[in-house]
Amino acid sequence: MAAALSAAALLLGCCGAALASGVQDQAEQFFRSGHTNNWAVLVCTSRFWFNYRHVANTLSVYRSVKRLGIPDSHIVLMLADDMACNPRNPKPATVFSHKNMELNVYGDDVEVDYRSYEVTVENFLRVLTGRIPPSTPRSKRLLSDDRSNILIYMTGHGGNGFLKFQDSEEITNVELADAFEQMWQKRRYNELLFIIDTCQGASMYERFYSPNIMALASSQVGEDSLSHQPDLGIGVHLMDRYTFYVLEFLEEIHPASQTNMNDLFQVCPKSLCVSTPGHRTDLFQRDPQNVLITDFFGSVRKVEITTETISLDRDLAGFENELPKDELATEPLKYADQLPVAQIIHQKPKQKDWHPPGGFILGLWALIIMVFFKTYGIKHMKHIF
Amino acid sequence: AVPVSVVFTPGSVPADLPRQLPYRDVREEPVPVGCKTPTGRRCPRSLPELLWVAPGFLARWQSQPRSRPSPPRLPQGTNVYVGKHRSALVRAGQGLAALRARLQQLTRVMSFTASSIAAALADRVPDGQLGPDARRHLKSSLGYEITFSLLNPDPKSHDVDWDIEGAVNRYVQPVLDKLSVVANFSVDSQILYYAVLGVTPRFDKESSSFLLSAHSLPHVINPVEARLGSSAASLYPVLNFLLYVPERSHSPLYIQDKDGAPVPTNAFHSPRWGGIMIYNIEAPASPQASLPLHVDVDMVRVMEVFLAQLRLLFGISREELPPEFQVESPGNEGLADWELDRLLWAHTVENIATVATTLTSLAQLLDQISNIVIKDDVASEVYRAVASVQDAMAELAEGRLRSAFQASKEAVTSSERAFFDPSLLHLLYFPDDQKFAIYIPLFLPMAVPILLSLAKILREARQRKKEPTKMD
C-alpha cells in the first residue's frame, strides 16, 4: 500500500514538471464541477453463498473508490451477506474478484456500515432521504449537502422495474425515483451518478425525474446481466461481467487522471458483456464529455491558496483570567439521561394493530351468505347455528 | 432596512444640502436576488416574494456639535476608513451627489449586496450568472466543530511541541466568542504521527528547497483525511486545520502558486473543509545536533494563518474593496462588528430560504402520498417553523438582525425536525397493474358462483312478479 502510494506520488511528481504549462487550463477545468465533497453509497442486495459475485462486485467498487480518495467516513457500504467469513468459503477472510484468486477485494480496511439483515429497502431509503432515527451512528448516515457528488452503486437480482432485496422484498423504480426527488428537494446532492448491475437494470433508471442525475446500467430491459467466470477453487461465479470490466477500467484511473464519462459509457461493449449496457444523461446538466471520472469515483478537492493573514496581538494575556468553562460544577450525566431510554423501550412494535373488518369485507361476506341461503333455502340455517 | 446615521463634522457640510440638518431620508434600494430579472426569469414558487425587495438603507443626517474635538485626518489617497465597530470615516466630497455615492459604496461594503444575498440563496435560486465557485462558503448550520491537527511525519527527527490549548484560549476563543451568536462552536485538537502528504514534493535547486506546486495540492488532502477521525466527531460540519511539519529530508517545503512564486503564508485551504499550513523547521546550526530536534511551534504565526482561513471559509473576508477604502484591522477579535452583521444577514436569508423550500417540499410530499400519517409532534414542529419564519421576516424588515437570526434558527431547527422525522418514510408503492394482479385471481373464482346465483335470484323474482294471480 505504501509502495503503491509512493509510486503514484512519484508519477505525479514527474508529471508535475511536464504539466506546468497546462496548469492554467487545468485550473480552469478544475472549477467546472461545483462540488466540494464526494460520497458513495454502495449496496449489495443479495444474500446466500451462490450470490458471492454481488458482494465481490460491491467490494470492487468500494476498493476503487477508496483508492481514488474517498475516505470511509464518506462511504456507506451495505452488504447483505458475509462472504468472507461464510462457512462455505474455502479461503476465509477473502473475497476474490479475479479467477485464480488474483485480487482480494476484501482487504485489511473494509468498513461495512450496514451488514446482513440491516440491508433492507427501508434502511436504504432512510439513508438516502435522511429520515434516520436520532440514535443512528454517524457512520451509518449520508451526511451530504448541496455541494456533494454522490455515487450510488447497486447490484443484485433485479427485474423489470424492481430490485430484489434479501430475497424477501423489493424496491421499485418509482420508489427510487421518489427517493431521489426527496434528496433533490432537500438539496442533498449536487450531482448523482447511479450505477446498477442487475438483470434488466435499465428499467431502474427509467423513472428518474430529478435534475443532475446520470445513470448507467449493465443491461437493457428484457436482457439479463451475466456473470463473468466461475472459479473452480471457490465454486461460485466471482464477478458479474459489467462490473468486472468497470473494475478493469477503474484500475487505470489515478486521482489526477482526466478521463471523462464518455469513456465509462464505452466500457463493456456487447461483445464482451453479452448484454447491452445503457446510460441516461438527459437529466444531467453538464456534458458527459466534461465530467471527470474522479468527479464521482474520487475525491479531488478544490483548494485555494491562502494569501492573507490577520494580525494578532502577541501578548494579550487578558483572557487567562476568565474562568475556564469546565470548572463549573456540573453533575456527571448518567447514561440514562443522555439517551431517550423511555422512548426506545416503549416503542410500539411495528406490526399493524387489529382493525375490525372494513366495509368491503363485511359487504362481501354478507353478499355470499345471503346468496347461499337464498339459493339453498332458509331451512339450512338451523343446521348451522 | 439598514439604519445609517451620517454625522457631519464642523466645516464639512456640503454646500448643496437641500434641507436643514438634522433630517431623515429614506432611500429604498431594492436588491434583486436573481429572480424577476429584466429577462423575466421566474423565481421558484417556494421562495417568498418578500425576499425580492430587500430593504434599502435609511439615512439620518445630522451635524456634530461643535464642542467635540476635531476628528483625525484621513491619510492621503484614502477617502473612506472603515472602523471595526460599525462606524466609518468618510472624507466629505465635492457635493451631495458624491457623498451619496460614497455612502452607497460604503453600505455595500459594510452591509449586504445583491451578490452576497444571491450567494446565500444560491442553492434555491436558479442561477446562470453565479459560477460554481459562488457556493463555497460554509452553509449556515447550528454548530461547527473545529479540529486542529498537528501532522508529524518524521518523529525521529522532530519532536514537535505545540501549546494548542493556550493558543486556543488566547487567540481562537475570542474569535469564537464573537461568533457564538452565529452558532455553537466546539474545538478539539490532535497530533498525528507518521501522517504523510499524498504528494512527493520536487526539489528546486535554485532555492535549495522543496516545492509543492499548486495543482498537486488537491491530492494532498485525501490520504490524510482518512486518519483525521472526522467521522467520530459530532454531526455538525467539521472544519479541519492541519499543521504539517515536513520531514527532515523534505525541509524546507514551500507551496508554489500558479505563477511559480512561493506563497508567503505557506498555507492553502479547501472550501467547506478546512486549511493546511506547512511549518518549516530551520535546519539546526550544527549538523551533529542530536536527533530528534525539539521544536516549539510559534503558535501566533500559526493562528494568524488559521484564523484568516477561518474567515475565508465563512466568507467573512472581503475580496473586492473599492480602491479608496481602508479597513481597520479587527485585531484579536478576528472580525469587525459589521462583518459579523454581514454574516448574520447571509445566514438569516439562507435559513429563511431553506425553511421555505423545506416546508414546501414537505407539503408536496404529503399531497402526493395521501396515506401518510402525520404525528402530532411533526404537526406542531411545522406550525412552529411557520410562525418563526414569519417572525424572522418581520424582524428583518425592521432591521433587527439578532432577533431575526434567532427566529430563523428556530425556524430551521423546527422545519428540519419536521421534514426528517423518521415516521414520514413512505414505503409502499403499489402500481395499478400489481393491484389487479393480486386481487383478480383471488376474487374472480369466488365471484363466479355468486354472480350466477344472483342472476338466478333476479330471474325468479321477475317470474314471480309476472304471474301474481296464480296464488289461490
TrEMBL record, chain A:
<dbReference type="GO" id="GO:0006506">
    <property type="term" value="P:GPI anchor biosynthetic process"/>
</dbReference>
<feature type="transmembrane region" description="Helical">
    <location>
        <begin position="354"/>
        <end position="373"/>
    </location>
</feature>
<comment type="subunit">
    <text>Heteropentamer. Part of the GPI-anchor transamidase complex, consisting of PIGK, PIGT, PIGS, PIGU and GAA1. Interacts with GPAA1. Interacts with PIGT; this interaction, via a disulfide link, stabilizes the expression of GAA1 and PIGK and links them to PIGS.</text>
</comment>
<dbReference type="InterPro" id="IPR028361">
    <property type="entry name" value="GPI_transamidase"/>
</dbReference>
<keyword id="KW-0337">GPI-anchor biosynthesis</keyword>
<dbReference type="GO" id="GO:0003923">
    <property type="term" value="F:GPI-anchor transamidase activity"/>
</dbReference>
<dbReference type="GO" id="GO:0016255">
    <property type="term" value="P:attachment of GPI anchor to protein"/>
</dbReference>
<keyword id="KW-1133">Transmembrane helix</keyword>
<dbReference type="GO" id="GO:0006508">
    <property type="term" value="P:proteolysis"/>
</dbReference>
<keyword id="KW-0732">Signal</keyword>
<keyword id="KW-0472">Membrane</keyword>
<feature type="active site" description="Nucleophile">
    <location>
        <position position="199"/>
    </location>
</feature>
<keyword id="KW-0812">Transmembrane</keyword>
<feature type="active site">
    <location>
        <position position="157"/>
    </location>
</feature>
<feature type="signal peptide">
    <location>
        <begin position="1"/>
        <end position="20"/>
    </location>
</feature>
<dbReference type="Pfam" id="PF01650">
    <property type="entry name" value="Peptidase_C13"/>
</dbReference>
<protein>
    <recommendedName>
        <fullName>GPI-anchor transamidase</fullName>
    </recommendedName>
</protein>
<comment type="similarity">
    <text>Belongs to the peptidase C13 family.</text>
</comment>
<comment type="pathway">
    <text>Glycolipid biosynthesis; glycosylphosphatidylinositol-anchor biosynthesis.</text>
</comment>
<dbReference type="InterPro" id="IPR001096">
    <property type="entry name" value="Peptidase_C13"/>
</dbReference>
<dbReference type="GO" id="GO:0042765">
    <property type="term" value="C:GPI-anchor transamidase complex"/>
</dbReference>
From TrEMBL, chain B:
<keyword id="KW-1133">Transmembrane helix</keyword>
<keyword id="KW-0812">Transmembrane</keyword>
<comment type="similarity">
    <text>Belongs to the PIGS family.</text>
</comment>
<comment type="pathway">
    <text>Glycolipid biosynthesis; glycosylphosphatidylinositol-anchor biosynthesis.</text>
</comment>
<keyword id="KW-0472">Membrane</keyword>
<dbReference type="GO" id="GO:0006506">
    <property type="term" value="P:GPI anchor biosynthetic process"/>
</dbReference>
<keyword id="KW-0325">Glycoprotein</keyword>
<dbReference type="GO" id="GO:0016255">
    <property type="term" value="P:attachment of GPI anchor to protein"/>
</dbReference>
<keyword id="KW-0337">GPI-anchor biosynthesis</keyword>
<dbReference type="GO" id="GO:0042765">
    <property type="term" value="C:GPI-anchor transamidase complex"/>
</dbReference>
<feature type="transmembrane region" description="Helical">
    <location>
        <begin position="436"/>
        <end position="458"/>
    </location>
</feature>
<dbReference type="Pfam" id="PF10510">
    <property type="entry name" value="PIG-S"/>
</dbReference>
<protein>
    <submittedName>
        <fullName>Phosphatidylinositol glycan anchor biosynthesis class S</fullName>
    </submittedName>
</protein>
<keyword id="KW-0256">Endoplasmic reticulum</keyword>
<dbReference type="InterPro" id="IPR019540">
    <property type="entry name" value="PtdIno-glycan_biosynth_class_S"/>
</dbReference>
